[in-house]
Amino acid sequence: MEYSVESLQRQLHHLRMSETSKELPSFLRKAESHSWTYQEFLRELLSYEENRREEKMIEKHLKWAKFPYQKSLDEFDLKELPSLSKRQLRQLQELSWLDESFNLIFLGPPGVGKTHIAIGIGLEAIHKGHRVSFVSMGELIPLLKSEEYLRKSQLKMKRIREADLIIIDDLMYMAMDQNEANLFFHLINHLYERSSIILTSNKGPEEWGELIGDKGITTAILDRLLHRSEVVHFDGASHRIKYRESLFQAKSVQN
């Protein structure tokens, strides 16, 4: 049976290889001009489809992440952050801590690069196949409160709960009432040891109780967030929480 190029394109499209279907005429011309073997032709065709699918997946995950802007870690001047060494930054870029469900907590005043570093790590994670979700605390609380009856909030929260890495920006910039604190605790409890969390805040954990209000809920939230975490001050001093596991300390012992 003789197949036309158009019929082959339809078959590729039916097999959900639409990108390859569009480029098939070009591949056929290249195969003929370069005298490709069947294996070479098939390898080029499948490699193209694989690369395009990966690119489209990255595009989709970038859209889902909802970053307010995109800045890579290479764009950050590490000289401005003496509390984080080049070796430690490379360690964070490797993302092995994601598999261990480690959390990162960035503390410091506004404008020192906390969000930039968090987004840079998020971009690295997406390009390495991880699902990432970015949300500010000012957006998160209304989402939690409206999740029960708003479809848009349900979809956003579903993506947050299913993400491998959740970035919560400007944590504890405003006080919570009892209901908000409960909703936030249940989210953190759900994510505990399932996902990694990056938090940015201008207030240290010792101040969070004043904003959460309920001592019991505060303790429960801190217990889950700080159990396996690295806390870094963005004003030049490295911060360590007693009795918790430290990502950098654990790695240095192994090395």
From TrEMBL:
The keyword Nucleotide-binding applies. Pfam families: IstB_IS21. Gene3D superfamilies: P-loop containing nucleotide triphosphate hydrolases (3.40.50.300). One of its GO terms (molecular function) is ATP binding. Keywords: ATP-binding, Nucleotide-binding. GO terms for biological process: DNA replication. Residues 100-233 form the AAA+ ATPase domain. The keyword Cell inner membrane does not apply. It comes from the Bacteria. InterPro entries: AAA+_ATPase, ClpA/B, DNAC/IstB-like, IstB, IstB_ATP-bd, P-loop_NTPase. PANTHER family: ATP-BINDING PROTEIN RV3427C IN INSERTION SEQUENCE-RELATED, CHROMOSOMAL REPLICATION INITIATOR PROTEIN DNAA. Belongs to the IS21/IS1162 putative ATP-binding protein family. This is DNA replication protein DnaC. The lineage of its organism: Bacteria, Bacillati, Bacillota, Bacilli, Bacillales.
